[in-house]
Hints:
Blueprint: H1 19-33, E1 41-47, E2 53-59, E3 62-64, E4 67-73, H2 77-84, E5 87-94, E6 99-109, H3 112-121, H4 124-132, H5 142-155, E7 168-182, E8 190-195, E9 204-207
Antiparallel strand pairs: 1-2, 1-5, 3-4, 4-7, 5-6, 6-7, 7-8, 8-9
Helix pairs in contact: 4-5
Flavin mononucleotide (FMN) binds next to strand 2, strand 4 and helix 2.
Amino acid sequence: MREQYRSEDFTEKDLAADPMEQFAHWFRQVAGGGALHEPNAMVVSTADSRGRPSSRTVLLKHYDARGFVFFTNYGSRKGRELTANPYVSLLFPWHPLARQVIVTGTAVRVGREETVAYFRTRPHGSQLGAWASDQSAVIGSRQELVDRYEELAARYPEGEKVPAPPQWGGFRVVPDAIEFWQGHENRLHDRLRYVRESPEAGWHVERLCP
Ligand SMILES: Cc1cc2nc3c(=O)[nH]c(=O)nc-3n(C[C@H](O)[C@H](O)[C@H](O)COP(=O)(O)O)c2cc1C
């Protein structure tokens, strides 16, 4: 299991001035290379108000200068934890390229219009699934879930407009640090981290020991 990573050095002069530009650069390379099935899959870690952590995979649906957006159920475990404690970490595990990106920041709910606009782009079945699932709640059987789905499918046949569920929506993670990790031979990996004191402040870059 001990793999030697072969790759070109990744140095300060290779970095974009802004970390979101750097993220876009790496994301395009990863997505374009075809080596990863879902390059937009990321691990989202949250902590409850007592500091107990939990992690799960979600799909990044949008990113821009403001941050990273994913959609979920606000009543889910992650949704409730982020409501009580907005500090969050995202991790992109791009193992086939010996790369990883780690973001820490603060999660804020996106506007309702942004949620509704994205919800409309989802396939009909996924729209119904969002209504059918009381995400993270305990359920007695799979059949109960299927029954809920079938009821909704009868109420909203294919082609009928499905409204966005009120408890469902997006979070935007506004970053305060973004680390770009590139694996190398002999464990001499590059770790370059952009950090800023606040969303209004400028970014500076620091190199971390691997
Ligand atoms: C590849 C992959 C993509 C996923 N994408 C999402 C997503 O975009 N939104 C979401 O709410 N859950 C997504 N899930 C399910 C979550 O991992 C998780 O099971 C769910 O959100 C409930 O998490 P929670 O109980 O910790 O809140 C995805 C799972 C996998 C494996």
